Amino acid sequence: MSVFDHYRPSERAFIEQVLDWVQQVEDNYLFKLTDFLDPREQQIVKQIVGKRLVIFDDGGFEGAERRRLILAPDYYELEPNDFEIAIRQIDYPTKFVDLTHRQVTGTLLNAGLKRQKFGDVVLEDGIAQFATTAEAASFIEMNVDRVGKARIRISNVAPEAVLVVPETKWTEEFGIVSSLRFDVVVSEVLNLSRQKAQALVKHGDCKVNHKQIEDASFVLEPDDLISIRGYGRVKLTAILGSTKREKIKIQYGIIR
Questions:
Q1: Which band of pLDDT confidence, cut at 50, 70 and 90, is reported for residue 17?
Q2: pTM, full prediction
Q3: Given this model, what pLDDT does residue 96 score?
Q4: Phi-psi bin for 185: left (phi > 0), alpha (psi -120 to 50), beta?
Q5: What gap in Å lies between CA 167 and CA 113, rounded to an integer?
Q6: What are phi and psi of 24, to 5 degrees?
Q7: Distance of CA 56 to the CA centre of its chain
Q8: How far is CA 66 from CA 12, 40, 50, 169, 228, in A?
């Protein structure tokens, strides 16, 4: 059985990249530093690497979701600066502007930055910080001076002033669905009509494992993380078997 058989076809390109990273480290006896990976990508890397190499990770913030990984031979000794992460702060007129995660992310993407080049965005009491690669930090400082219509300034952050990612609090729930289709599960967990759930998916308001999915018939699997704009996040934690009427019992966590 091929390693690709354990994953979705849409993940094949990333898996090939991971296999190439592993080969580079084993052939050259040098460590490999990745860009910022989302949790699903981190999971794939750790599953494929197994015990062949050692893996270190850091996201810049305590509790960061998106993280850079270092793949290395077992004799490698980690140095803190090896992750090459820079924390930057957005100074903006807090009296007139309320920044959101979506605005900050959109601003960085619109500046020409790829999503893998920056990590978590943390907002707290009028303070906005984000993690990025040391290489991309200077590019951002030179090219980003507005968020929406607001003038901003990008500044360095002292180590003691770095924010902490708020703790995620999930509510555990159970449900019964006729299938694991994306629209069916969204309908159940959000208590929406099937038609409304399909519209959310088709309009691009839903993601699975941080990737936008517009196919309502997309089949979900355990550990999938679903993000629905305006509704929160849902994690499908387990399939608990079938009912007498052959419907599927699911367990999931939800953040509203």
A1: very high
A2: 0.89
A3: 78
A4: alpha
A5: 27
A6: -60, -45
A7: 17
A8: 20, 10, 20, 18, 18
